[in-house]
Write a structure and sequence with these properties.
6 strands; 48% helix; Rad_response_metalloprotease; binds zinc ion; 363 residues; Transcriptional regulator; Lambda_DNA-bd_dom_sf; globular; four-stranded mixed β-sheet; alpha/beta; DNA binding
Length: 363
């Protein structure tokens, strides 16, 4: 039998948020043996391998494919870094690494838009947001779809599954390509805000090579608010002293949460401290703190939808892609906004007439 790829066993365990002890409990394999597998000092028996495959939710072939580098922790902008337990961060980071498998697969086959994200370290977030808007030709207009916009400027966007929920989102670089990973179990408005927040990190903080503290989080939030709700546009809509009902009525213009709009109105001095606080109390009472009643539907990736379309037109099914990546289809689907219609899987058209060379995707 081939030799197990230790980096893959470690990745799979971290992806599920398991310590060696927890994995030992779940599989009935001793922690000492598991540790020896991870060190490469011992090879698992076939039975133990099957048990690991089942418990960790990866095909046996996953554990024998090529070595994988981890995404370095310092390459990642995590929200609430200090509050997030290490195993949760590892789970999100490992989920990101699995998304990179697909990202690399796509890169070999498609030409995607080139990265066009300016680096503006030490710039005031409001100014930086205006500069990115100007560079991308957005004027003061509301943004129809944040994910499509990021993708059109060369940012690769993938989804994280619900088990990464307390990480929210993170961004990193793969070579020169910026990547954003989003927790998509939240409201459409919050996913949009997270997308703009991660853009803020890419613009403001990608020069730093260390995890970011609370200041960086605040800067990314200020960037996101200014990017989604440009000062000039917000000031031109007679929202001075707006009460809760007006905020709820107007939030759809910028496709933001009521809380985010209230905060922005306060930031641009259209709401006093007192006005802002009373709106927050009202919104909380009406259920707008953690959810968004009557919210927008979540945005998804345009690039990934086109990739799957093109691949299907070539006679390859998503199940075959998953197989090439040594993943189960549901695992792949968790990183692509659930865009794979799993119910109609199977029945691939065969490999006849596959395209040679890379296909250019226009977003
Ligand atoms: Zn952040």
């Amino acid at each position: 039998m081939d030799t197990l790829t230790t980096s893959r066993l470690i990745l799979a365990r971290k992806r599920r948020g398991l310590s060696l002890v927890k994995l030992a409990q779940a599989t009935g394999i001793s922690a000492r043996s598991l540790s020896a597998y991870e060190n490469g000092h011992q090879q698992p028996s076939l039975d133990n391998l099957r048990e690991l495959s089942k418990t960790l939710g990866f095909p046996v072939s996953f554990f024998f494919a090529s070595e994988l580098d981890e995404i370095p922790i310092e390459a990642i902008s995590f929200r609430a870094l200090s509050k997030t337990p290490a195993f949760r961060r590892d789970a999100a980071r490992s989920a990101g690494r699995i998304a990179l498998l697909l990202n690399d697969w796509i890169d070999e086959r498609f030409v995607l838009p080139s990265p066009d994200v300016p680096h503006l370290p030490k710039t005031d977030p409001e100014t930086a947001a205006e500069m990115v808007r100007a560079r991308w030709g957005l004027g003061q207009a509301p943004i129809a779809n944040m994910i499509h916009l990021l993708e059109a400027h060369g940012v690769r966007v993938y989804s994280l599954s619900a088990e990464c929920a307390d990480v929210d989102a993170f961004s990193t670089y793969r070579g020169k390509d910026p990547l954003v990973l989003l927790d998509v179990s939240k409201s459409g408005e919050r996913i949009r805000f997270d997308s703009a927040h991660e853009l803020g990190h890419l613009v403001l903080h990608s020069e730093h090579r260390e995890p970011h503290g609370p200041d960086a989080e605040q800067e990314a939030n200020r960037f996101a608010a200014a990017f989604l709700m440009p000062r000039g546009d917000v000031l031109s809509h007679s929202l001075q002293g707006a009460m809760t009902d007006r905020i709820i009525a107007w939030k759809s213009r910028w496709r933001v949460s009521a809380m985010a709009l209230a905060h922005r109105l306060h930031e641009v001095d259209l709401l006093t401290e007192w006005g802002y606080r009373s709106v927050c109390v009202n919104l909380s009472r009406m259920g707008y703190r953690s959810t968004e009643p009557d919210g927008i539907s979540p945005e998804t990736s345009q690039v990934l939808a086109k990739v799957f379309q093109a691949v299907r037109a070539d006679g390859q099914s998503p199940a075959e892609i998953a197989k090439e990546l040594h993943l189960h289809l549901p695992e792949l689907n968790r990183h692509v906004f659930g865009l794979i219609p799993t119910a109609i899987e199977g029945g691939a058209a065969g490999s006849a007439g596959r395209r040679q060379g890379r296909l250019t995707l226009v977003t």
